[in-house]
Amino acid sequence: MKHGKPVKHESMPSICHINLARNPKLRGGERQTEILIQTLAEQGVLKQYIVILRKGPLARRFKECHNLKVFKVRNRLSALFVCLALNNKTLLHAHETHAAQVAYVASLCRKTYIVTRRVINPIKPKAFTCAMYRNAHTVVALTRAVENSIRSRLPDISIVRIPSAWNPGSPDMKAVKKIRDQFKGEFLIGYAGAMDGPEKGHLILLESARIIQPAFPKIKFVLLGSGLLEEEFRRQSKDLSNVYFAGWVSNPITWIAAFDIFAFPSLREGLGSVLLDVLRVGCPIVASHVGGVPEVITKDCGILVPPKDAKALTEQLVHLYQTSSLRTQLKTAGIARSFHFSPELMAQRYMEVYMSIFKSLA
After folding, report:
1. Is 45 found in the same domain as 186?
2. Three-state secondary structure call for residue 18
3. Angle at 150 between CA 149 and CA 155, to 5 degrees
4. What is the three-class DSSP state of 260?
5. Which of 65, 114, 277, 290 has its CA 20 to 30 A from that of 204?
6. Mind listing the pLDDT tens digit of every residue in the chain (362 residues)?
7. What is the C-alpha to C-alpha distance for residues 303 and 335, in angstroms, rounded to an integer?
8. Treating both helix axes as pointing N-terminal to C-terminal, what angle do 97-107 and 127-134 enclose, rounded to 10 degrees?
9. In degrees rounded to 5, what are phi and psi of residue 227?
């Protein structure tokens, strides 16, 4: 991402982002942290810090961000020391659970913090966990579904909703052509997601591929991603000639631009940030009606099906395959819908939260 020269000023308000994710690969939450920081850096109205793990997925990012200081730490205790050393008027922004734990402990020493919660899982009833959210100045929920999940445990805390943003990177069109040439003559149904558990619905997608294979030999399922269950998914699909595992890729937006349809069979989802990239490139979507997905994918820009229902998923994938006019309609509506999830709009919403807090700290 290119950055203009921001105006430097000693009196800039400052914010310290904390993301202590340990995933070996960059995932949705880490991408969103990076997108927010980079977009805020372009605006040049904040002095920013970021606390990350030395061996975490963000360790090699942020090389060209203005007004940003990067702290690479060994663990949560080291992260806490960094936060405590900052001016008390520096707002802490925790982007995941370990970061929220650090921010909460720092707040016992008069630090102010907010937490972004991305998942729909119920908050655990442990006293420390509840206090971690209750003592935040504000909790940011990606969707109404995430907010409802939080309020089921903590009904009276301050919550604002700010959805994620699409990745500002653009598809490499030469690489898109190479992918299309690799699967010449085939209709590509794509998917992207970590393979660490069953919640992303990989088994539902493989079941759909099994149903489709004998009747529609030109359809190919392309799965992006890696994880603990990748070998198991490969084993369960070894008899399927219409499934291709691409593994983890550094340029998912390019692959998505090469797909004819994007399938999203998740069983549980706070928002599904990859869907925003899919909308942006105009790839038609068939997704599970779960969590915050219906708040992103409306009936005008995609097709929703019941979760855990391979038959329903298959029927809609085949319907789209056979109806080019519907694919065109969803493509146009999807691109229009994506304007609601731009990085600039996300950054603007966070700035409104930050500035209201800075006024109270002045």
Report:
1. no
2. strand
3. 115
4. coil
5. 277
6. 444 444 444 567 899 999 999 987 888 889 999 999 999 998 888 899 999 999 988 988 887 777 899 999 999 999 999 999 998 889 999 999 999 999 999 999 999 999 999 999 999 999 999 999 999 999 999 999 999 999 999 999 999 999 999 999 899 999 999 999 999 999 999 999 889 889 999 999 999 999 999 999 999 999 999 989 999 999 999 999 999 999 988 889 999 999 999 999 999 999 989 999 999 999 999 999 999 999 999 999 999 999 999 999 999 999 999 999 999 999 999 999 999 999 999 999 999 999 999 988 77
7. 15
8. 80
9. 155, -175
Residue 19's SS3 state is strand
Structure tokens at 16: 């310290």
Alpha carbons 14 and 293: distance in angstroms, whole number: 33
Cα separation, 254 vs 173, whole angstroms: 7
Hey, what are 208's tokens? 């759909």
Cα-based angle 322, 326, 328 (whole degrees, multiple of 5): 110
Alpha-carbon distance of 248 to 24, in angstroms, equals 11
Q: What is the largest CA-CA distance in the chain?
A: 67
Handedness of CA 212, 216, 218, 219 (dihedral sign): negative
Q: Are residues 23 and 156 in the same domain?
A: yes
pTM (predicted TM-score): 0.90
Whole-angstrom Cα distance, residue 142 to residue 160?
Answer: 9
CATH number for the domain that contains residue 273: 3.40.50.2000
Domain that holds residue 97: 14-165+342-361
Quickly count: other Cβ atoms within 10 Å of residue 293's Cβ. 24
